[in-house]
């Protein structure tokens, strides 16, 4: 009986922590998404305008969803010059947490799109607690095809099933 009570207490504590980790009104530093082109096409042809536009499109999708959930997106102007020099804010050896602290954020959100080929694109998104540096939520997905619709569907899946768990 004591074991059952202890297990229920642990479940209650985990549930309470889970419920509090992305509270409405929390301040979010969304540092954007990095784009890593690992494809042969990218090596030969360089940056494609349509992929740059897609990256902006899914960044806007992320921003809109966080706002819909009642979170406050912070202005990145105080760190803009430093952020511009970083290709992938999700892999910058803790700069994301340092930027979040500079901005007074509760959470920092980073992610990346990795183009393996024109057929295979991988996306990820991370939400980290600025105070502890702990990753609160994370999700990755591989998508097939390199279109506006596939990118939107990939990021929508991440937001729905990994970040906000509808």
Give a structural overview:
With 166 residues, the protein is α/β, with parallel strands linked by helices. It contains six helices and five strands; from the N terminus they run αβααβααβββα. Strand 3 (107-115) and strand 4 (120-129) form a beta hairpin. The protein starts with a helix and ends with a helix.
Helix content: 40-55%
Output the radius of gyration: 18 Å
Mean pLDDT: 87
Number of strands: 5
- Strand proportion, as a percent range, falls in 25-35%
Q: Report the total helices.
A: 6
Which structural category fits the helices and strands?
A: alpha/beta
How do the strands of the widest beta sheet line up side by side?
Answer: 2-1-3-4-5
**Overall outline:** globular
Order of helices and strands: HEHHEHHEEEH
The largest pleated sheet is described as: 5 strands, mixed
Spans where pLDDT lies below 50 across 5 or more residues? 1-19
> What separation lies between the terminal Cα atoms?
34 Å
């Amino acid at each position: 009986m004591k074991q059952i009570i202890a297990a229920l207490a642990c479940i209650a504590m985990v549930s309470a922590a889970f419920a509090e980790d992305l509270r409405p009104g929390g301040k979010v530093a969304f540092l954007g998404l990095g784009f890593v082109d690992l494809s042969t096409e990218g090596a030969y042809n360089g940056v494609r305008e349509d992929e740059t536009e897609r990256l902006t499109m899914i960044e806007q999708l992320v921003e809109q969803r966080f706002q819909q959930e009642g979170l406050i997106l912070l202005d990145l102007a105080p760190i803009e010059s430093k952020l511009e020099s970083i290709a992938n804010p999700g892999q910058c050896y803790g700069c994301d947490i340092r930027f979040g602290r500079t901005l007074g954020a509760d959470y920092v959100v980073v992610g990346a799109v990795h183009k393996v080929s024109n057929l295979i694109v991988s996306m990820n998104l991370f939400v980290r607690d600025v105070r502890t540096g702990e990753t609160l939520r994370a999700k990755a997905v591989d998508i097939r095809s390199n279109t506006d619709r596939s990118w939107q569907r990939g990021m929508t899946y991440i937001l729905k099933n990994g970040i906000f768990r509808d």
